[in-house]
Amino acid sequence: MTKMSMKRILVVGSANIDFLMTTPYVPAPGETIVSEGAYTFVPGGKGANTAVAAAKLGTQVVFCARVGDDAYGDRLISLYKEHGLDLRYLKVDKLEQTGLAVVLLEKGGVNRIIVYPGANKRINENDIENAFFSYPDAIITQFEIGDTAVISAARTANTEGVPLIIDAGPARRDFPLAKLEQVEIFSPNEVETEILTGIRPNTLEDCLRASIALSNAVDIKYVVLKLGARGCYIYDGKYCDIISPFDVQSVDTTAAGDAFTAALTAEYLRTGDIIAAAKYANAVGALTVTKVGAISSLPSSLEVKSFIEEYGK
Ligand code: RIB
């Protein structure tokens, strides 16, 4: 693919360092347990994971973000450069530290995450309006930055006629969804769906009820529910479809949802076909859970291609 025909995605989102620790189980209040694994500080953040995932899949990516003026910020910027992200709209914030996430990884790959947003919360309207001068084909944002930044990204996307993709993590019941106006793709995971709608998407009927509830709250073209090991569910206001998962051994689910959204957007821009995009995104999400870490677990387009070919045999 030539540079000219490559689509450009603007990611407005968080950049974190993840403090990752494995644990046999989550301790009860007052309980102390000893982890047998080593701890690490690895690059993560929902925005950065999405941006790097899209770049690794062959998309041009503009990353609008803020990191602190500290060693973690320096480390993240070097990594983004290695992955070829356009960093013209990334700011080094003098007032706040680089965002940090504490990731507790339980046996079986389930994670629990607490985020200190730091510089991520200081992404502002100006940062976002400037970033639209990169003329993106789509914009992806998540809720790990300030509400006003998310709403400003949505408003600018709608004014400029740029398709808006929302990855609804971390979800809050009181987020003012109606202010997003028009959304091309809205994609929460199971927990986020329950927080936003009060409906856990366990059955197909629950998926439909939750999708309708989301569509009643905001004008959405496609609701795509990420159902983890059960694949994903698509609703377009009339029709729905469940897209089967790829069966893999999960070691760490961190960043799988971010990689899914990046792949969904990249493939949707390339083909205009939401079903094909969801199948591709399922493959990317599946590959991501087979490795530990956030950015370190993201697959390249070649890895995805051979995984899909191999899986189909
Ligand atoms: O989605 C996974 C990410 O959530 C982690 O990398 C962590 O930084 C938190 O933002």
What's the arrangement of secondary structure elements?
Layout: E1 8-12, E2 16-23, E3 40-44, H1 46-56, E4 60-68, H2 71-82, E5 90-93, E6 99-106, E7 111-116, H3 125-131, E8 138-142, H4 147-160, E9 164-167, E10 182-187, H5 190-197, H6 204-217, E11 219-226, E12 232-235, E13 240-243, H7 256-271, H8 274-288, H9 301-312
Parallel strand pairs: 1-4, 1-8, 2-6, 4-5, 8-9, 9-10, 10-11
Antiparallel strand pairs: 2-3, 6-7, 11-12, 12-13
Helix pairs in contact: 1-7, 7-8
The structure holds alpha-D-ribofuranose.
> Into which percentage range does the β-strand content fall?
15-25%
Give me the Rg, rounded.
18 Å
The total tally of domains equals 1
Shape: globular
What is the average per-residue confidence, as pLDDT, rounded to a whole number?
95
Within the largest sheet, what's the order of strands? 5-4-1-8-9-10-11-12-13
How would you describe what is shown here?
This protein has 313 residues and is of the alpha/beta class. The protein has a single domain, classed as 3-Layer(aba) Sandwich (UDP-N-acetylmuramoyl-L-alanine:D-glutamate ligase). Helices cover 35% and strands 24% of the residues. The protein has a 9-stranded mixed beta sheet with strand order 5-4-1-8-9-10-11-12-13, sandwiched between helices. A 4-stranded mixed beta sheet has the order 3-2-6-7. The radius of gyration is 18 Å and the shape is globular. The two termini are 26 Å apart. The model has no long low-confidence stretch (mean pLDDT 95).
